[in-house]
What does this fold into?
Amino acid sequence: MNQRFLLALLLAELSCTSALLRAAAPLKAQPADLTPGAVLSVMEQVADWQLANPSTHSPTDWTQGAGYTGMMALAGASSSPRFLDAMMKMAMANEWKLGPRPYHADDHCVGQTYAELFFRSKDPAMIAPMRERFDWILAHPNNGSLDFDATRNPDRLDRWSWCDALFMGPPAWIRLYVATGEKAYLDFMVEKWWKTSEYLYDQKEHLYFRDSSYFDRREANGEKVFWSRGNGWVMAGLVRVLQYLPADHPARPRFLHQYREMADKILACQQADGLWRSSLLDPANYPLKETSGSGFYCYALAWGVNQGLLDRGQFEPAVRKAWQSLAGCVTPEGKLTHVQPIGADPKKFDDSATEVYGVGAFLLAGSEVSRLVNGGQSTDTSSR
It folds into this structure.
């Protein structure tokens, strides 16, 4: 009798100790199953965490705008209305307005979501402020230098003078073209994209410098400085332009050529764990996983496979590996970790860091991965 009592007491103590150890242990990433249902499930979990822990940035800020693009992608894939409802609530609270700076691409990013909401309901009020702003820009063009030196060029941010701008601005301009049929918006986007490309795109490395201040900088290993998220912005921007660029547009072959050229380079920069490091050409000096740039690459490569633009045999394994690693950076609560904080170049950072733009990249990636693992090719958005 006493032995049975002592055994029960010992088992109870072991159970309590095990529970305490589990509570004290660091949160582990969740498994990354590759089925459409599993992909959607982790997308919804990450989105729900973000909605429950909202970013403190301005609701028209570029950080938020990038997050909204992912929420819209999820809204097209999920059977739940809560994600679309959140975007409608945001847009109505913003009164469908862009950010305050007239020319600044960062303040145009939120317009991508307004346009995609417009595609669903065709309410002209949803795009009226964006249309007024872009019409003003067309009437008051700013065609100055892309030199990023603030002393020589104090209004440099009024042009697409840094590579991130190619995600923020062009997809909004082309969506407004689709919404209105006004070719001037499309022409502006095409002209300005290639002006930026001719200035910042390295024809040898097939990567973009973040801005002109990086032309002569070098990493510790002697390589040029090519920031992962910066090139991720460009790759995602290429996808979000190609989604709506007419098939017979004379510039489409040029866009496709750059997209494929960059895709090949990005594939070569992928690390053994499936992710990319914050410095593309000096990963050894930045060993920490980075999920915002990686999310955009996973999105862009998966989209290309789904559209038949990239070789499935070559790129699909890389996409699958990337997604499994991305999902492995999600805590059980749904927090996406390993997001490099706001910056302009490769940095070392706390591996628990998160940001709303990283969530946007993750959700965009998931929207295409879910199609890929479902074995079907699809148009790019359900909101058109």
Observations:
- Residues 43-373 form a domain with the Glycosyltransferase fold (CATH 1.50.10.10).
- The first strand starts at residue 201 and ends at 202.
